[in-house]
Amino acid sequence: xxxxxxxxxxxxxxxxxxxxxxxxxxxxxxxxxxxSLVVVTALxxxxxxxxxxxxxxxxxxxxxxxxxxGASGALNMWWDADIDAVMARTAGRPVPAGRIAPGxxxxxxxxxxxxxxxxxxxxANWLAAGLLAFTIFFYVVxxxxxxxxxxxxxxxxGGLAGAMPPMxxxxxxxxxxxxxxxxxxxxxxxxxxxxxxxxxxxKSDDYARAGVPMLTVVAGPNETRxxxxxxxxxxxPLGVAPAFIGLxxxxxxxxxxxxxIEFVRRAIVVYRVREGAExxxxxxxxxxxxxxxxxxxxxxxxxxxxxxxxxxxxxxAGWM
Length: 320
Known about the structure:
Elements (H helix, E strand, L loop, with lengths): L2 H11 L9 H7 L2 H17 L6 H25 L1 H4 L17 H22 L2 H21 L7 H10 L1 H10 L4 H32 L4 H4 L2 H20 L9 H23 L3 H32 L13
């Protein structure tokens, strides 16, 4: 057993024992803010798919995807209880704060994981269920247990788990995986590093204290700023892509261009402003806008589908 693993086991063992937790504590285990992003992106994949589910089955599929994401969050909090306890941003979470015992969080997360996958398979199809199971496994095992503590590229590779919901929903509706859903996954995948690294520029001391090799800790803030700018530049044209593969219409094209340019502009500010409170302020503004950026792209796709606005191009057929 490695030194890091020994420390993790000792820290978890030292946490307070079981206590009476409220409903709000179990809701906190599900990471509701992250879940809200999952719901929006999965709903977009579900609605944009060419073959829709019955509304009731669609609602069940969306619930399963959301619960699967929440289960991943609970298992993440179970495993990361040791580092959460020493980080100011996470010390108040239910497990490190002692309101929920580690074993209870583990049982809660595993139950929801298995239940969400089985329910999605039974109500939609097993391709979607398999993708959901892969998403949970990737986030919990590949990212949380391995990458997060071993490489500064943790959020780059691990971001795939958070990017998968549109594809899971697309598969639930169609029984296939299309190019369109892959593009939606790619947008979230490319968005995740600059979004998260902007937060890391503000919370770098937290990660350093916990021994997590985030890019800001290993490579320093200036290299992190450079990487944020590079990802923002790559994300801008990718965000426009749905308008040219039969997903987005004229409204989507206009919005994606505007928010893409603004994302790059804010990344340039972060790159240039490197000292003092202004640097932290710039990073905070980029982090906040990144949430608006992602919600805007997916929400506009939903609006276009809801009001029947036509896509700019014909849908691409014949890809898986």
